[in-house]
Amino acid sequence: MTEVFTGSFTQQEPIPDEGIAAANAVMRHGRLHRYNTSGDEIAEAALLEEEFAATTGARYCLAVASGGYAMTTALRACGVVHGDRVLTNAFTLAPVPGAIAAVGGVPVFVGVTEDLVIDLDDLARKLDQAQVLLLSHMRGHICDMRALMALCDAAGVTVIEDCAHTMGATWDGVPSGRWGRFGCYSTQTYKHINSGEGGLLICDDAADMARAIMLSGSYMLFERHRAAPPPEAFAQIKYETPNISGRMDNLRAAILRPQLRGLSAQAARWNARYRVVDDGLRDTPGLRLINRPVQEEFVASSFQFLLLDWSAEAVADVITRCKARGVELKWFGGAEPSGFTSRYDSWRYAPSDRMPASDRVLAGIVDMRLPLTFSLDDCALIARIIRAEVSAVFQGQVAAE
Ligand SMILES: *Cc1c(COP(=O)(O)O)cnc(C)c1O
Question: 20 to 30 Å CA-CA from 36: which of 52, 87, 116, 246?
Answer without folding.
Answer: 52
